[in-house]
């Protein structure tokens, strides 16, 4: 229960007078834990904007569901990671259930401040169809999630090589990343029984890259730092840093570096361009 005391020289004839009373003349008492869920500044703003009780209740319920989902999801993730031997950095959060399956002799790590989103209740994951799943399929396989990365319903499966996700990489809902074809190409009659592991290739996604909704990143691909992959793309070849690629198969469409930055880049033969200013020619058939 909220208790408000107002000095005698203030009129208590309206709620607005009470809310505008100097903080030194008020005393608030909230049940333990409720202060974190109900922010009084938010309540004051809601009242000032004239929101209806239904809107206030709707917003409060969203906050409660989001905070509870994050608390419970993070607790489950840390318990599961401790059981299966997956190191997790500081500040890692999970919204909803996260699938962790680590083959003996393989490695999975999750960096500091990583966010794993497996629940549609999170506003940025409204299109989420599946939870986050991290799985190694054999000894020597490796999955490394860099600090600050945000994965939404991402499925990552490393069978015999390494899949690395860089610092602060953004991966939109329902993306798939694999290092293998999982079956031999030839002969056709042996595909169901031959794993074809000799064709496995590592995958690397550079720092600050952004992977759009419903993308598939196949074996052997390196996505450069700061690159963007358009929604629904199937990435089969390397993508240069700071470039935009999209399509099935994905093709580089243009550079993300502003024109003035490219023009200011060093031009002399003896002076190389910085990686962030590497010019990528536009495709004429895009």
UniProtKB/TrEMBL annotation:
Keywords: Transferase
Source species, domain of life: Bacteria
Gene Ontology molecular function: any one: O-acyltransferase activity
Signal peptide extent: none
Region ranges (Disordered): 258-286
Residue stretches spanning the membrane: none
InterPro entries for this protein: Hexapep, Hexapeptide_acetyltransf, Trimer_LpxA-like_sf
Protein family according to the UniProt entry: Belongs to the transferase hexapeptide repeat family.
Name of the featured protein: Acetyltransferase-like isoleucine patch superfamily enzyme
Organism of origin: Desulfovibrio intestinalis
Organismal lineage: Bacteria, Pseudomonadati, Thermodesulfobacteriota, Desulfovibrionia, Desulfovibrionales
């Amino acid at each position: 229960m909220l208790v408000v005391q107002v000095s005698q020289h203030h009129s208590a004839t309206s709620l607005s007078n009470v809310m505008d009373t100097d903080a030194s003349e008020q005393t608030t008492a909230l049940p333990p834990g409720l202060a974190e869920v109900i922010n009084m500044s938010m309540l004051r703003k809601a009242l000032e904007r004239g929101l209806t009780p239904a809107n206030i209740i709707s917003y409060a319920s969203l906050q409660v569901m989001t905070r509870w989902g994050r608390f419970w999801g993070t607790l489950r993730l840390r318990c599961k990671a401790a059981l299966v031997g997956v190191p997790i950095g500081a500040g890692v959060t999970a919204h909803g259930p996260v699938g962790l399956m680590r083959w003996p002799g393989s490695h999975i790590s999750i960096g500091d401040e990583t966010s794993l989103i497996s629940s549609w209740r999170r506003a940025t994951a409204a299109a989420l169809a599946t939870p986050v799943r991290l799985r190694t399929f054999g000894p020597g396989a490796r999955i490394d999630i860099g600090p600050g990365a945000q994965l939404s319903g991402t499925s990552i499966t490393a069978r015999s090589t390494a899949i690395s996700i860089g610092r602060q990489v953004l991966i939109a809902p329902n993306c798939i990343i694999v290092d293998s074809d999982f079956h031999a190409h030839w002969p056709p009659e042996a595909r169901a029984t031959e794993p074809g592991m000799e064709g496995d290739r590592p995958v690397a996604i550079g720092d600050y890259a952004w992977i759009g909704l419903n993308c598939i990143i196949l074996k052997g691909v390196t996505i450069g730092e700061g690159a963007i992959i358009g929604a629904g793309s199937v990435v089969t070849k390397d993508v240069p840093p700071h470039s935009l690629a999209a399509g099935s198969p994905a093709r580089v469409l243009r550079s993300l570096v502003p024109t003035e930055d490219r023009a200011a880049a060093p031009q002399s033969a003896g002076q190389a361009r910085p990686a962030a200013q590497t010019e990528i020619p536009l495709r004429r058939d895009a």
